[in-house]
Each structure stands twice: as C-alpha cells, then as structure tokens.
Design a protein that fits this description.
The structure is a homotetramer of 213-residue chains.
Chain A: E1 2-8, H1 18-27, E2 35-41, H2 47-59, E3 63-69, E4 76-79, E5 81-83, E6 86-87, E7 99-101, E8 110-112, H3 117-126, E9 131-134, H4 141-154, E10 161-167, H5 184-200
Parallel strand pairs in A: 1-2, 1-3, 3-10, 4-9
Antiparallel strand pairs in A: 4-10, 5-8, 6-7
Helix pairs in contact in A: 1-5, 2-4, 3-5
C-alpha cells in the first residue's frame, strides 16, 4: 500500500515546523507493508496545492495524509472537514494574504475527510498518545491544502483516500511552557499509528468523537 | 424588517441556557425599524428543526439568527459554516445520541452563513464587547439547527438570510470562575448589535477574521 | 465601619485598569453601615506603598482591600498569601524593574490575608458571580502592595484587617474574546459583596478553597 | 555530591503518577559526579513528611528535590515558595482532608526554595524542554511536602538545600488531549538538567522569572 505524508515548511516567524520534522521521522520507520513517500509543502497559497498535486500523482499513493502545525493544541487532532474558504490571519511566506476567497471557484462548500477518523484517533490513543477529532482546520494554509487535496481526490480518483492531521508545537517552540507541546518522536509515533489505521481500516469505528460546539 | 431570534432550552444538566435568557432580553428592546420575534427550540435532534422551520414560516422573517451556548468560549462567536453531520457527545434531552449521521441525506457537506459575519463581529466590538468569527459550531444541536436553517433557507427562499451565534456561559453557571462567562444583559446587547448589523449591512466588511487552525 | 478600597492606574500598555473603574463604581453604592473611602495607587514599586500607607492612615479604615487586575482570570480571586519578593516581568510605570529583591528587608517570607477569604468567595457566588481563592498574587505590583499592606497592618495596628482581590479584564480590553472578561459593574457588585462579607464575618467559613497545585 | 529525588504515588483516581515514573528514569542515568538516591512518598498528609525526613537523613543528601504532578501545566515548573497551609480540595489517599490548618504550628508563613530556581529553568530550556518559575505549589500534598522539607532543612541543617518541582501529566493520562502532557523520558531529562544546575550553581541567575499575577 502506497501512502503519501506531507509536512509544511516553517512560517509565522518560527524556525521549525513540527509537521515536517515528524513526517521525516515517520518516513524512516514505516509500518509493515506500507510504502511511504513524503513531500514538503511551501506555506504559500496556491503554490502549496501545485506541489501537493504533483506529489500525489508522482507517488501514486492510495492514501494521502497532510500534516500541519496547530500551535496551542495539546494532542494530535484528526481533521474531519475542509471548507472552501481562504481567510488568512497573517500573510503567507510569499506575503500574500487572501481574505474571504474561495479555494476552488464553484467548488462545494466543504469536503469531509475520507480517512477513518475515529479509527485514527483510537490508534493514537492505543499508542499511549493523546488524540481527538477536530471539526475545523482553520482558514489558513492547512485548510487550504486539506480542501485542495480532497477536491483533487474527489475529481476522478476513485478509491484514493485522504485527510489532514494537525499536530502540537514542539517543546523547543514554547520554552516557557505557556502552551502545550509534544516531542517530534512522539508526533512521529502517532503519525505511524494513523497511517496503520488508515491502511487497515475498511469501516470506521461507530463511536462518538463529536464536540458540543 | 422582520427578524427571528431563536434560543435553546437548558441541557446537559444545566438549569439555564444563556441563549434563551439573552434572546428574551433582546426581544424586549429591538433596534429601530426591526420587528423581532423569538422562538425557543428544544435540545432534541429533529424536533428542534421542526420547531425552527415553523417559526421561520410563521414569522415571515427576512433574517433568522439562531443562538446557542458555547460553554468555555469567552466572547460572542459568529459561526461561519454549518456541516452536514450529527455526532453527539452526549444524548439530547430525549435521550437520543446520533453518531456520524447526516442531518439531511444527500444534502451538501456544508453551508456558509449568509449573515455578514465580519460586520457582526465589528458591531459587537463597537458595543464594547468581545467577538470573533468561529469556523465550527460543533456536531451537536447547535450545528444541527444551523445546518437545518441554512438548508431550509437555501431551498427556495431567495433573499432570506440566516446564521448562528454562539454565546458564553452565564456567570452563575461557573461559580468558581474556572471558565469564562458573560452576563445575560451583555449577551443581549451583543445580540442587538448583531441584529442591527445583519439588517443594515449589504456588503460584508473585507477584513480578516480567519484562524490559523 | 470604615473600609478602604484601593485600585491601580493603567499599566502595560492598557488605557484602562478594571480595578480602579470597579472601585469607583463600588464607592458610589456602599453597603449599609459602611463608610467607604478609596485611593488610586500608581503602578510604581515603592511609590505605591507610600501612597497606600498614607491612605490607610488618613482613612482610619478598619478593613483595607486592595484591588488589582489579573488579566486572563475568569472570576474574582481572593488572594490568600503575599510573599516578600519583587520579580518584575515588565518595568513599572516609572521604568523600574526589580528582579529578585525583597519588598521589606528582613521581613517575613510571607503574610496571610486577614480577610475571611472563604466567606468573601461565598458572598460573591451568592451574588451570582464567579469567585475562588488564589494562592499567588504574582511577583509584580499587586503582590508588592499586598505584602506592603500586610506588613503595615501587622506592625502595630492590632484589629485592623486587610487583603487583596484580583479582578478579570474588562470586556473592552479583550475585543476578540481570546481571554475572559467581566463588566465593570459586575466587578463592582462583587467588590461590594466582598466588603459586606469582610465587615460582617467574625469567623471564616471552614470549607475548602484549596488547589491541588 | 549526594542528591535526593522524591516522587509521589498515584492519587485522585489516576493509575500512575508522572513524578515517580520520571524520578525512576532519572535515577538510572545520573549526571556525572552526582550520587542520586530516590524515595517514593505516600499521598497522605503527615505520613509523607515522616517518610521524607527519614529519606533526607538516610541519604545524607546535600540537595533534596521533591517532585509532584501538576495536572494541566504544560511545562516543568520550579516552585519558589512553600506556604504553611493545608487546604485539601480532595481527601488524601487515607481519606483525610484537612481544611485551613497549618503544616507546622507556629512555623513561619512561608519558606522560599533554596534551589537556584532561575538556573534550573534555564537548564531545562537549554535541554530543549519548557520550564518556568511558579509561585504557588497549591495547598495539597505537594505544598505540604515542600513546606515540610524546607522546615526540616532550615531547622539546623546548614548548607543543605532543597526545593520542589512540578511536572505535567503523562500523555496516557490525557487520552483526548484536552490537557497538556509530557512523556516520562522528557520529564526525566528535565529533572536531570535541574539536578545538574542545582549542584553546580553557586549564585543564581539574575533574570526575571516573575509573573504579573
């Protein structure tokens, strides 16, 4: 089974991005029976999608999992829904800051992840690490890439699945401990558990992962 | 201009629901030129939509704003997107707990609010109260009602707009101050500002209200 | 019964300080039988204590309650202990930033509040507002004034009691609602409840207000 | 140089206590030149101090660092002050719940840590892990042990230093990621850095570690 994992370059003044560090660590120790390829995406609207689509096609991956940083969250969060909206709170790495623009003109308002999100959460917890389902990937590059991925997969690529995973800060990004963090090797272990769940689960678990608001 | 405001009954063990308290206070002092009607919705899947659709039709409202409690948030949050998903973390007031079911079979994955969400945020802040845009209304009753509202309005009711606003706990709901709160009269003032912005804004403000994740 | 309430001037770039706004509102409507005087303290190490001691002597107050802003807390917090330490994270309003200096050379490491802290918490909750006991007033001006007050009262002023109360941000200080807040009139109501409890309680309630860490 | 590290047994319904797990890991790899002994303390008022004092005497430790869990904190926190107060929010492991009782009758209101707290914070950050100074250890077992330790050391044991360190939850204690956590091996690395700083620092760093409230 071929799986593509993507991470992002640093942004917003940070020198590192936990998503790429963890993706690289995960790549070094793939689950049995999984052929893992990786791609580094720029934190640039549109360019990120060009790079992503190329990687999806080059890899021939049957499962694509994009990974991004969610500074402030304490656990792995498996995103459930991507929305057709760019509303950038800060400029991207090329200085562009779209506000209230669709990602795909005439695209649907949203796509749901086609990963087994509940099984992915359970797999991370079974590995002793914290995880939950999230119902918003924001309106910046992470959601942009998530929506672009799902639009690409849903447009004539039947049977290929994809989704997005948000990860916490690395410990060195929060030296005074005012925000939660997770070591890169823990994030990598969690990603590996997610990849395993994604390739082995045919029907997702039927247990609540909902939020009241 | 006719406006409908809805609130919810209490749920989850609470004796009160700030949404209904504030809606009632707002009803007592509507903005000039606005004819305000209100409806109390049950915290029951499906039943809440039956009641909502009836209130929409009875009121003839051109603008419908549903209001619900988001315990833990510190300001007013104007919801931007409703998703076609029920995933109840706790049972509703009739004991029903849907998990991973669509709200409308074959409905679109999501609807965007047709309120001017940025203008609504600005109006609340101009009134000296905290507000922001939110990109998830959860997967419980609030999202259920929000999605059901948008589906109803988008199905053959052109020119009628709607959306959802989440409000904080009341002070008496958090006696030890471990979560944020807002007095009912402050919430009502904020709702009044939102109603005014909704009926007077023809084109929404073009300024960021986005989130990074 | 004579009571002195003190508040602080703005600091740290803020245009307002909720402590002084609320103290002024509380002064306008004192509890029955209470003669209330107030003093505005500068956010300046040492100078604040000079002004405080003068106000204590001028007022002849039997109960002194100093009030300060604790940005980020969601309820009223009744401070229990003042420590003999200045460690300023930011400079004061005169640009002075003491690090690891005692407030009173050869003073004891700490003083406990002589207010009935549990009764004060209960009084605020009875008024429908959130409150709890806090076990640190920080190491900036609030703790400085709290320690200086207790040292003054404990040095030959038997029967005169004092303490410190921290209050949340005002709503206008957190326009995007990323931190909790409380309207000035709510804070004032809570202060009035605290004053009443302080002057009428002879023996504090014996119920836990502790924290695990 | 002889150093004693103590941890606690589980409490409050948890099956594990990160303090003891990390102390055991740290013991297995002490810094050069340090003879490290450890002790497991019961989460029982008074009994914990009996066990602690015995371990201090048996070990002949010149530096004693007690470690406890602070569920909800995201980094290592080096406690600066212990107060003479038991106010238990929950019963201890023997079912005893003291409220508003002194730890040592006629003891001083507080003791300051005699560890170089700023150097300890810097050492943890240098190891790539989050840390800060804390000004309250609560009013439960951690503060009880911290105060009892300092009282013991200050009563006729010149030159022997001690203090308290709070550590976050383990990842497996927060499966849904609603609170921060840190892996046991990261906590152990941080403790080792603290031990090294404690035994090699003769004069603490003069840089702010203060908090505004």
């Amino acid at each position: 089974m071929r799986v593509l994992l993507t991470g992002f370059e640093p942004f917003g003044g940070s020198a590192v991005n936990p998503s790429w560090q963890a993706v690289r660590l995960a790549e070094a120790a793939p689950p049995d029976g999984v052929s893992l390829s990786t791609a580094l995406l720029p934190v640039v609207f549109h360019d990120a999608l060009v790079r992503l689509r190329a990687a999806v096609e080059e890899s021939g991956a049957e499962v694509v999992i994009c990974v991004g940083q969610a500074g402030g969250r304490a656990g792995m969060t498996i995103e459930r829904v991507a929305v057709n909206l760019d509303d950038a709170r800060i400029p991207d790495n090329k200085g562009v800051q779209p506000v209230d623009e669709p990602i795909v003109a005439d695209g649907p308002a949203a796509y749901f992840s086609t990963l087994p999100v509940k099984a992915c959460v359970a797999a991370v917890r079974d590995a002793g690490l914290p995880a939950s389902v999230s119902h918003t990937a924001g309106t910046y590059l992470c959601n942009h890439v998530f929506y672009g991925l799902m639009h690409h997969l849903e447009s004539g690529r039947p049977g290929r699945r994809g989704g997005f995973v948000h990860v916490p800060y690395l410990p060195e990004q929060v030296p005074d401990g005012d925000k939660p963090s997770m070591p890169a090797r823990s994030i990598a272990e969690a990603l590996t558990a997610i990849v395993s769940a994604a390739v082995t689960t045919t029907e997702d678990l039927k247990e609540t992962g909902g939020s009241l608001h």
